[in-house]
Design goal:
With about 450 residues, this protein is α/β, with parallel strands linked by helices. It folds into 2 domains: about 190 residues, Rossmann fold (3-Layer(aba) Sandwich), CATH 3.40.50.2300; about 170 residues, 2-Layer Sandwich (Heat Shock Protein 90), CATH 3.30.565.10. It contains 13 helices and 12 strands. The strands form 3 sheets. It has a 5-stranded mixed sheet. A 5-stranded parallel sheet has the order 9-8-10-11-12, sandwiched between helices. The chain has a two-stranded antiparallel ribbon with strand order 1-3. The longest helix has about 90 residues. The radius of gyration is 36 Å and the shape is elongated. The N and C termini lie far apart (about 130 Å).
């Protein structure tokens, strides 16, 4: 009999059943046993194949999820790298822009305060001052975004002030674009603890975004923005509802609206930082910002801020307007007898000139653009107050301050800068206390004068 060629699987099953190539099942019972073993074998194969396929499927999904997670982590690392680069860039930008901005704003304030101007000229100067303050706020917020900050400092202000500032600056432009703005105040409690210019930048960003979206709409439907102030007395919160009918946004845009560098605008139209900065500002003030949208209709932004209604009105540090009727600054007795000497060290000529104009009526002011010359003056003379810029060529403000402590330890120090984050000041100037920090762009002239008049106990009448 010719030997049959069996498949290896069949050979194994024959062997399991006690048979072989030369010893095939002879009876019906033997064949049933053999076929049952084969059937069980294929069942096991099916189960093994199912488990293997399931395992491969799960592995594939797990690998896909890991790949997605890695992509997200890579994007986060890229964003972190962008923010780190932004921090370095912002520091340089702040220094380069805040110096000329300090000159523009300072001289405009002096002209407004001292000049004999008609109403039209006063209005133009007020616009310059407001826009300069806004630019300073934008630079400050750019620094905040690129650095970890717990800065929630600010004055007790009426939240209507920054809103009105924005509306005043944009009303002509929005009127030209046929955009109607309705503003409704539904509460008498509108005091919050915040920086006026910082809050103004939030509202300005919302208005700017709405206008950009309205421009895209080509139909003749009314373009409307509704802003309302409300009070949540149960949670002691002040609510600002900002609504527009500029077409709303998709869910994809909604989910990314607060991401840094995300923008739906063209390359030359937006940076993608506006809403990210706005969210950080509101959260630093202890509040929250929420967005609701209907695609094709419009969007609503709900800004919640802690209400400061329990504060007495006398405790509010409201920013005073620049007006010639402002009360005269009280001159201490010591200063009437002899003007204190002030040394200004700043590498920008217009900064020295501006501060000299502000201080020369009450102080004997010396200035130099060379930090080396500043140290020479310290060795040769006596000064009661030394004002020095922090970032200067050849010698930094820190080095000038060391020489102040060496040659004139009783003198008061005022550090000036437009690029150092205030969160770093305490650490950086630790060895120079007592000292004061003055940011660029500068506050109103009267505030600078008050700062110097009250700097030392011996100047108090």
């Amino acid at each position: 009999m010719k030997t049959l060629k069996f498949h290896k699987v069949l050979e194994r099953q024959l062997k399991k059943s006690g048979f072989g190539k030369e010893n095939l099942p002879a009876s019906e019972k033997d064949w049933e046993l053999f076929l049952e073993n084969i059937n069980n074998c294929y069942k096991q194969y099916d189960e093994d194949r199912y488990l293997l396929e399931r395992s491969l499927d799960l592995s594939s999904k797990e690998m896909q999820e890991k790949t997605e997670r890695n992509k997200k982590m890579s994007l986060q690392l890229i964003q972190s790298a962008k923010l780190a680069s932004l921090g370095t860039l912002a520091s340089g930008i702040a220094h380069e822009l805040n110096n000329p901005l300090a000159g523009i704003m300072g001289n405009a304030q002096l002209m407004h305060l001292r000049g004999s101007l008609d109403n039209s000229q006063k209005e133009s100067l007020e616009t310059i001052i407001k826009l300069s303050e806004r630019m300073g706020g934008i630079i400050k917020n750019l620094l905040k975004l690129s650095r970890q900050s717990n800065d929630v400092r600010g004055d007790f202000i009426d939240i209507q002030d920054p809103i009105n500032d924005c509306l005043d600056l944009t009303k002509k432009q929005f009127s030209t674009d046929d955009i109607e703005i309705n503003y409704d105040v539904k509460t008498s409690h509108t005091t919050v603890k915040a920086d006026r210019n910082t809050l103004a930048s939030v509202f300005q960003n919302l208005l700017s975004n709405s206008r950009d979206e309205f421009i895209k709409i080509r139909d003749n439907k009314p373009k409307i923005i509704n802003i309302s102030l409300e009070e949540d007395s149960e949670n002691n919160m002040l609510l600002v509802r900002y609504r527009d009918n500029a077409g709303g946004m998709s869910n994809e845009v909604l989910n990314k609206i607060f991401d840094p560098f995300f923008t739906t605008k063209g390359v030359d139209q937006g940076t993608g930082l506006g809403m990210a900065i706005s969210k950080q500002i509101i959260e630093e003030l202890g509040g929250d910002i929420k967005v609701f949208t209907t695609e094709g209709v419009g969007s609503e932004f709900l800004i919640c801020l802690p209400n400061s209604i329990r504060r007495e009105i006398e405790s509010q540090q409201v920013v005073r307007s620049l007006d010639k009727t402002s009360p005269e600054i009280r001159v201490p007795k010591f200063m009437k007898e002899e003007k204190p000497k002030v040394l200004i060290v700043d590498d920008e000529e217009f900064v020295c000139q501006y501060l000299k104009k502000v201080l020369e009526d009450k102080f004997d002011v010396y200035s130099t653009q060379s930090p080396i010359n500043g140290v020479k003056l310290l060795k040769e003379g006596r000064f009661d107050i030394v004002m020095t810029d922090l970032k200067m060529p050849i010698l930094s403000g820190d080095e000038v301050a060391k020489n102040v402590k060496k040659y004139m330890p009783a003198a008061s120090l005022i550090f000036i800068s437009g690029h150092v984050d205030e969160d770093d000041i305490n650490q950086r100037l630790e060895g120079f206390y007592p000292c004061t920090f003055l940011t660029k762009p500068f506050p109103e002239p009267e505030k600078i004068l008050n700062l110097l008049c009250n700097l030392k106990q011996r100047f108090i009448a």
